[in-house]
């Protein structure tokens, strides 16, 4: 276990479409946290669910003003890390690419295919190169707990699924939708990447509880997706998601055992200490500061 890793849980919730209103938190308070990566999507609200600290951030900001392409994914993950969050649970609306995943059902996503373009997908770069493993982009411990919590809340839950992240903001064409099905993708959304890859770089175990809102546009003879319909279905199910969060808090073990993801950067930074950019290292104080000891 990492010597600096706390043994208590602090869950960061990133709330997607339909969830700008947040989750029920006791002793909720807005906290000011700034990031060298710019402004996060909105206010950071921290509080407790039962005895567990939760911190909430609305991915698209108040009133859903930020499009999937313009979410500052780096700032969002960086501020959660700065707040002391230990694990991140993302709540997202998704389209279904499978007959057996019906609107209203939940999917604990465990794989991603990234079809986004033009988004900043890494905290690292020129002057500080890091290659983390992303083979298993989701924390199975948190994902399984979230799935169980959603079942307890009364949702029909699928315990795995591959999420294709598209750039948007337009929904897919029918040809694209059919293509993603041949790639074995199960659900489609616009925000899971680069969020999941940045969480991994920040050594934050990440899971996504996705709520199916529509069948995208691959089914013969059906209309395309409409955003207002997505939100209608989301609003009908948001209570289940909120209830799942309450139940998750109750089922977390009293002590948080270390996760291998807490050390995701071990061995990943390959730039020689003498060749590292001090300015980038300073920006990465929260994400990777534990690796920048005296001798670096
Ligand atoms: C409102 S429909 C499209 C919108 O919904 C999903 O958002 P999120 O993942 O934040 O729940 C999808 O990714 C799009 O951003
Ligand atoms: N069909 C779809 N495509 C992309 N993002 C979505 N979010 C909800 N439904 C979606």
Automatic annotation (TrEMBL):
Annotated coiled-coil positions are none
User: What is stated as this protein's family in its record?
Assistant: Belongs to the PNP/MTAP phosphorylase family. MTAP subfamily.
- The entry's substrate-binding residues are 190, 214-216
Q: What is this protein called?
A: S-methyl-5'-thioadenosine phosphorylase
User: CDD domains from the entry?
Assistant: MTAP_SsMTAPII_like_MTIP
Nucleoside phosphorylase domain span: 11-246
Q: Which organism does this sequence originate in?
A: Novosphingobium rhizovicinum
Q: What EC number(s) does the entry state? A: 2.4.2.28
Pathway it acts in?
Amino-acid biosynthesis; L-methionine biosynthesis via salvage pathway; S-methyl-5-thio-alpha-D-ribose 1-phosphate from S-methyl-5'-thioadenosine (phosphorylase route): step 1/1
Subunit description:
Homohexamer. Dimer of a homotrimer.
Q: Does the keyword Cell division apply?
A: no
The record, for SUPFAM superfamilies, names: Purine and uridine phosphorylases
Positions of phosphate binding: 17, 59-60, 92-93, 191
- Entries under Pfam families matching the protein: PNP_UDP_1
Broad EC category: transferase
Example GO molecular function: S-methyl-5-thioadenosine phosphorylase activity
| Keyword Transferase applies | yes
Record NCBIfam families: MTAP (TIGR01694)
Q: Which reaction does it catalyse?
A: S-methyl-5'-thioadenosine + phosphate = 5-(methylsulfanyl)-alpha-D-ribose 1-phosphate + adenine
| UniProt function note | Catalyzes the reversible phosphorylation of S-methyl-5'-thioadenosine (MTA) to adenine and 5-methylthioribose-1-phosphate. Involved in the breakdown of MTA, a major by-product of polyamine biosynthesis. Responsible for the first step in the methionine salvage pathway after MTA has been generated from S-adenosylmethionine. Has broad substrate specificity with 6-aminopurine nucleosides as preferred substrates.
Q: Where is this site: Important for substrate specificity?
A: 172, 227
InterPro entries registered for this protein in UniProt: MTAP, Nucleoside_phosphorylase_d, Nucleoside_phosphorylase_sf, Purine_phosphorylase-2_CS
Keywords from UniProt, A to Z, are: Glycosyltransferase, Purine salvage, Transferase
């Amino acid at each position: 276990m990492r010597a600096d890793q706390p043994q208590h849980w602090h869950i960061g919730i990133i709330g997607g479409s339909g969830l700008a209103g947040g989750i029920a938190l006791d002793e909720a308070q807005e906290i000011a946290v700034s990031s060298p990566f710019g402004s996060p999507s909105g206010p950071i609200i921290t509080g407790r669910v039962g005895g567990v600290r939760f911190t909430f951030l609305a991915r698209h900001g108040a009133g859903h003003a930020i499009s999937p392409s313009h979410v500052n994914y780096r700032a969002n993950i960086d501020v959660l890390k700065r707040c002391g969050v230990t694990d991140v649970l993302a709540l997202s609306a998704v389209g279904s690419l499978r007959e057996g995943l019906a609107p209203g059902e939940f999917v604990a996503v465990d794989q991603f295919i990234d079809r986004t373009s033009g988004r900043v997908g890494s905290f690292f770069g020129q002057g500080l190169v890091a290659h983390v493993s992303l083979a298993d982009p989701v924390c199975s411990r948190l994902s399984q707990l979230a799935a169980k919590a959603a079942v307890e809340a009364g949702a029909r839950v699928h315990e795995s699924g591959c999420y294709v992240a598209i750039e948007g903001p337009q929904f897919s064409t029918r040809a694209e939708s059919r293509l993603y099905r041949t790639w074995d993708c199960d659900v489609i959304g616009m925000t899971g990447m680069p969020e999941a890859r940045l969480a991994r770089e920040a050594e934050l175990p990440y899971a996504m509880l996705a709520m199916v809102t529509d069948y995208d546009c691959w089914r013969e003879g059906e209309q395309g997706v409409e955003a207002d319909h997505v939100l209608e279905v989301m609003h009908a199910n948001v209570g289940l998601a909120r209830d799942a969060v309450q139940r998750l808090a109750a089922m977390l073990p009293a002590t948080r055992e270390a996760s291998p993801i807490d050390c995701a950067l071990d061995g990943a930074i390959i730039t020689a200490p003498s060749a590292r950019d001090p300015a980038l290292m300073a920006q990465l104080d929260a994400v990777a500061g534990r690796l920048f000891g005296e001798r670096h």
